[in-house]
Amino acid sequence: MDISSTKYIQPRPLSNFNRISFLVSINGELPSKTPKNLIPLEAHKLPSRMVTLLQIHSPVVHTITHEADINRINFLPGDGLITTIPNLALVVRVADCAPVLIFEPSGKVIALLHAGWRGIMRGILETAVEKLVLMGVEPKKLISYIGPSIGEKNYEVGDEFLNWFPRSAKVINGKVHFDIKGEIKLRLQKLGIKIAGTFPYSTYSTPWLSSYRRDGKSCGRTICIAWLKQDTQK
């Protein structure tokens, strides 16, 4: 997986956490004015080791706590990754679905999820937090960030969403729309997870982000990478 030459940005709300890195890839060029709450990275160095999954819109979350887990889990079906290993990059790809970062700020553990409506409905957020709790982390000590996804006004869905997501689906101008970030926020808050922020732009209306709804099968994917930084004080 050679993604080291890709351009990336860092969400500004996460720059205060010294043990956490989370980058979002850019398609093409950013506007001349730096986007709100984002830090363009002129230079960056990615970890040499990376793990990704065959994303299937599921609640399946894989945990990597030993070196032997890395090759075993890489490219398995699933939509969530958790690790306690420093400098191991977790990678998800999105094009309207939301990447969700969950971490313990001192650098003990990090999770990166691919959360589309199917995965959300099937419980990927709850599954990830349950696994983190089993690893000994209290939910109140976890912090999350919701990455780039499609905005509500561009996310027209079927009437069934009103039953599936009664708090986050609503009728706008006679059509049902789904607020995917809003649903994720509600579920994280119910789980007791703090939210550091959300990505300030919709994938659909942002040319430098990938959007399946906007461009169809030719849209490509926005790459999201997260890792724990090595504790240099040890």
Task: Please give a quick description of this structure.
The chain has 234 residues and is of the alpha+beta class.
Tell me what the structure shows.
- The structure is a single chain.
- With 234 residues, the chain is of the alpha+beta class.
- 18% of the residues lie in helices and 29% in strands.
- A six-stranded mixed β-sheet has the order 3-1-2-15-7-4. It has a six-stranded mixed β-sheet with strand order 5-6-9-8-10-14.
- The radius of gyration is 17 Å and the shape is globular.
Can you summarize the main beta sheet? 6 strands, mixed
Total of DSSP H or I helical runs spanning 4+ residues: 6
CATH topology (fold) name: CNF1/YfiH-like putative cysteine hydrolases
The CATH class assignment is Alpha Beta
The gyration radius over C-alpha positions equals 17 Å
CATH architecture: 4-Layer Sandwich
Instruction: State the helicity in percent bands.
Output: 10-25%
CATH superfamily: CNF1/YfiH-like putative cysteine hydrolases
What is the rounded distance between the termini?
A: 30 Å
Shape by Cα distribution: globular
H and E order: EEEEEHEEEEHHEEHEEHEHE
Read across the widest sheet, the strand sequence of neighbours is 3-1-2-15-7-4
